[in-house]
Amino acid sequence: MSNDNNQATANHNTDKSTYTPPKIWTQDKENGGKFSSINRPTAGARHDKALPVGDAPLQLYSLNTPNGVKVNILLEELAELNVKGAEYDAYKIDISEGDQFGSGFVAINPNSKIPALVDHAAKNNDGEPIALFESGAILLYLAEKFGRFVPVSSGKARADCLSWLMWQMGSAPFLGGGFGHFYAYAPEPMEYPINRYAMETKRQLDVLDKHLKDNVYMCGNDEADYNIADMIIWAWYGQLVLGKLYEAAEFLQVDNYKNVQRWAQTIAKRPAVKRAVDLALKPIN
Q1: In a domain? residue 223
Q2: C-alpha distances in angstroms, 83 versus 56, 74, 78, 223?
Q3: Strand runs labelled E in the chain
Q4: Helix and strand counts by DSSP (H, E) for the chain
Q5: CB 56 within 8 A of CB 88
Q6: Which one of 47, 72, 245, 275 counts the least CB within 10 Å of its CB?
Q7: What is the extent of the structural domain holding 241?
Q8: What helix, strand, coil percent values describe the chain, rounded to 5?
């Protein structure tokens, strides 16, 4: 090995910017970024805080982030149809203030993430109202409860809906927790993670664009085919291509995904969706 190579290797090995993981990870300092002050590697309540309960059968505890907007859309679509029993009260869980770690919220969602919903019109074996967390679970529960926006019979239509529903649940963490975090929230820009997650986000947009080339909605071409798969995907990817997330539209060249653009604009025009993205949420204090 030449002296130049030896020196280059030595410089690399002593470079302070190179991170070597320890044998055992501990949280010995804040990682920085927007949510660094509340992030911890532990679960559970951090303070006592009961949640308010309104008069409607459904009680939503959420925030108008993409994950929260998913449920907002379905509830507003049900309201648009005047579905009896789908009335709801909506309360704001301010994740920047740590509301998700209050004892009342943790009791209905041990994962301390929004959204969470309590159905006071349905009871479990102990006579307590049914609580749900995870946006996909909430959408599927409500759609099946009211028989709207989900195919109820076994077959291709239901299989397609469930497949795209689960696709979104599995894919969005790469968009939000991956691309969104490193592009918009990390304490400093880092080339490798931004490139990694930008590539995956664009691949996912290409999956959607190719699928929507032959489909008006995620699961078909008729108005009746609009369902919870569209709602759950639009909240993330529809808003992304419409320039509503992370100020990343130009960076990701979202205008190139013409079919996703057409689909996103179509759904954005729905009255229920317009209400859902700016839903009025009551304070929990």
Answers
A1: yes
A2: 13, 11, 6, 18
A3: 58-62, 88-92, 116-123, 129-133
A4: 11, 4
A5: yes
A6: 47
A7: 156-271
A8: 50, 10, 40
Q: Answer whether residue 201 is part of any domain.
A: yes
Query: Is there a cis peptide before residue 115, judged by omega within 30 degrees of 0?
Result: yes
Cα–Cα distance between 257 and 259 in angstroms, integer? 6
pTM of the predicted structure, to 2 decimals = 0.92
Q: What one-character-per-residue DSSP string does 84-117 give?
A: TT--EEEEE--GGGTGGGBHHHHHH-TT--S-EE
pLDDT tens, position by position, for the chain (285 residues)?
Answer: 444 444 444 444 444 568 899 999 998 877 766 777 788 999 999 999 999 999 999 999 999 999 999 999 999 999 999 999 999 999 999 999 999 999 999 999 999 999 999 999 999 999 999 999 999 999 999 999 999 999 999 999 999 999 999 999 999 999 999 999 999 999 999 999 999 999 999 999 999 999 999 999 999 999 999 999 999 999 999 999 999 999 999 999 999 999 999 999 999 999 999 999 999 999 998
CATH number for the domain that contains residue 171: 1.20.1050.10
Q: Per the domain annotation, does 119 fall within a domain? A: no
Taking the mean position of all CA atoms in its chain, how far away is CA 192? 23
Cβ atoms of 99 and 49 closer than 8 Å: yes
**CB proximity list for 201: less than 8 A, separation 6 or greater:** 174, 175, 178, 179, 240, 252
Q: Which residue has the tokens 């195919």?
A: 151
Instruction: Walk across the sheet containing 129-133 and list its strands.
Output: 88-92, 58-62, 116-123, 129-133
Say how many domains are in the chain.
Answer: 1
59 domain-assigned: no
Rounded to 5°, the CA angle 152-155-158 comes to: 45
CA angle 93, 138, 145 (to 5 degrees): 135
